[in-house]
Amino acid sequence: MPDTKILLEERDIPTHWYNVVADMPNKPAPPLGPDGQPVGPDKLLAIFPMSLLEQEMSGERWIPIPEPVREAYRMWRPSPLFRAHRLERMLGTPAKIYYKHEGVSPAGSHKPNTAIPQAYYNKEAGIKRIATETGAGQWGSSMALAGKMFGLDVRVYMVKVSYDQKPFRRSMMHTWGAEVYASPTDMTQAGRNVLAQDPNSPGSLGVAISEAVEEAASRPDTNYALGSVLNHVCLHQTIIGQEAKKQFEKVGDYPDMVFAACGGGSNFAGAAFPFFADKAAGEKRAQNIRLVAVEPTSCPTLTKGVFTYDYGDASGYTPLMLMYTLGHDFMPPGIHAGGLRYHGDSTLVSHLLHDGLIEAIAVPQLATFEAGVQFAQAEGIIAAPESCHAIRACIDEALRCKATGEPKTLFFNLSGHGHFDMASYDKYFAGELEDYVYPEEAIHAALEHLPKFG
Amino acid sequence: MPDTKILLEERDIPTHWYNVVADMPNKPAPPLGPDGQPVGPDKLLAIFPMSLLEQEMSGERWIPIPEPVREAYRMWRPSPLFRAHRLERMLGTPAKIYYKHEGVSPAGSHKPNTAIPQAYYNKEAGIKRIATETGAGQWGSSMALAGKMFGLDVRVYMVKVSYDQKPFRRSMMHTWGAEVYASPTDMTQAGRNVLAQDPNSPGSLGVAISEAVEEAASRPDTNYALGSVLNHVCLHQTIIGQEAKKQFEKVGDYPDMVFAACGGGSNFAGAAFPFFADKAAGEKRAQNIRLVAVEPTSCPTLTKGVFTYDYGDASGYTPLMLMYTLGHDFMPPGIHAGGLRYHGDSTLVSHLLHDGLIEAIAVPQLATFEAGVQFAQAEGIIAAPESCHAIRACIDEALRCKATGEPKTLFFNLSGHGHFDMASYDKYFAGELEDYVYPEEAIHAALEHLPKFG
């Protein structure tokens, strides 16, 4: 039997990130200020280092990965590419299924791929501290890890309801030496404003972002870091797909379809963009490749949203970005794939979808857990609920292959393990989870609040 | 910089387990029945398959690993050997530190190394079901995984207090399709007896073992499986040290000292015995190797116990084994390395210690968490509290090397990750953990209850 795990050596860690902007037929529109004018890097220097802003705006195809970042990646990279022999047998499919296991990182997901370089570039810029926010804790724990590796202090504003209900990611952050506060706090004006209205506020990601940005903007030694959506975040994640390509080369195969869960977009970008590069470069084998972003039916940004300028956050503090959005005050239900509860999407991913160069589908929650359990019983690995979206889409395609007899090569990104999500699996087993399909009227209502300008 | 991870290919998974019995100058004494007579395999056939009993009694040096077991091992094996560059720098030691990461298995520890072959041999013997017990859940989840891989139903009697307080390992077992019951149950006579005395009994490992053994003994389609202590369990774990030797060979190094946490003994056996094989074979580089079992000061079996025949369980149901023991009714305090709370130790490990061929040390609880946090901040990985015992011992030696300038090569086994132990880290951070050093009088009292016979 061919190998289960396709491994690379540390010297195979890519030397450059791939910037999809270079290959986009329509270049991404710039972020706009409230006045409708493009926001230049100068306005963002208060919270980001110039090196990251240059990456954010860059049109260069290949961006070198600094050696200290490659060295830190070696803690867990290259991540293994698995051939899902057992899952294929369980499904009885003629399709070949591969998955990249990003859950092998110390924080358990793909997030450190960008936390590490963000910490590095901030350290290089003389910054001493990072302020950031986290919901359930995936991003906060990744930033805590990265800060420790580069000697930066990290303060995490963790949404209060998660701080109280999901203590173990908080414990991880403490283990890596980060400060963690339940947001809203009384340490920022943004937090105090919320507490004045409701001293028992459970918090929200929007409020936590506001607190972190306020702190970063007001302290010269402190910057802000974001875990998805932005161009430079998508850029850093392309290490996933680049490694996967080398691994496919090693076994003489190449995917017909790529599946990745899509919340803010960087996980999908990381897995899919390097294959888009092959297509753009005219490689024959890549001409018919299908790149599929998988989102929840409860937060159907790419499949039901509109392509327009909107705020990145719920409160309207951020610049406006051209993207698929459900409206910045769209409030998705409390599904168990917290990383996919985002009203908008990466500008890069949105542009590619709008230009018909990638695809998007939405899958319901119960079916994703069903797929996750099937995957665990076949492959052993317990996946994060976000990753179960990609697994669901891939299994569905493998079953279509079974029906048609097509021996397609399918690839999905297993973005993280589910060790901190077992309570969600428990609810699934107890029959306590529901499928949410967002009513069209609710989406229409949220879209009426889109910003008007210009 | 040399590689951080020393990897092997799947074809490098060993083809044989190493049986240390072949190289022991004094062969292990047989288990005895209550009459003081050796217990033959016939008496154990009600709960174990003959193939495993043959391994339990074997004196052969090399025992072939069946191909289906090697194939299942490929889900995660060979596990990586890490060179702890970052930890070395943090400590400022001239020592080289390596660790084998057994936490990469789907269940998160070394336990599946034996759960997988135990499931295989039982399946081959026509058995349909496995009954077993678990405390905090490491073993139960490993057996659940292994049962699913070979199509066996698994029922786990989980100590009630853990069932209630540690729900997430229970969720893992459910995900892999196992039945999990809070022990004591009303499904066995052993359980009913306990419940009759105390309907609110929190349960104990001893009671859970009794329930699982009773079920296995009374149902022809059901066998029992044990996760440590026994010779065949130690045998299966030797895949760890064998892989490590190949990995050291790959980088042209060899350990001066091997450290592994020791509860029932199989983790230590797995890491250390293959190096003992080199010494026994007269290999020059192995003549001065030191093999160090690390136990908690709160349960100092090897360092404070006596070498004598005692029961394997608290209730006195099992055969008597010649081993280091604190007395079968010794009740260690509720430390956070649950896997190390065992009154006795593997017969093999005990014999080797008694013959002066290995060493044992005890380390206090707080110092192990301190080492675990230092390790996480250097290497990224959050270790299980059990593994932190080996880390502590290894760091102490590295610091001695710093003082003396000796560039020793140190190797420890990272037996598992700590993702399901974050509550223990929390207690450590909150200053709620204590050091327990068991009073000599308490040990003497327990030793007065040693069985008398013959």
TrEMBL record, chains A, B:
- The modified positions for N6-(pyridoxal phosphate)lysine read K111
- Catalysed reaction, written as an equation: (1S,2R)-1-C-(indol-3-yl)glycerol 3-phosphate + L-serine = D-glyceraldehyde 3-phosphate + L-tryptophan + H2O
Listed GO MF terms: L-serine hydro-lyase (adding indole, L-tryptophan-forming) activity; pyridoxal phosphate binding; tryptophan synthase activity
In terms of Gene3D superfamilies, this protein maps to: 3.40.50.1100
EC assignment: 4.2.1.20
GO cellular component, alphabetical, reads: cytoplasm
Q: Quote the function comment for this protein.
A: The beta subunit is responsible for the synthesis of L-tryptophan from indole and L-serine.
Q: What is this protein's record name? A: Tryptophan synthase beta chain
Source species, please? Parasulfuritortus cantonensis
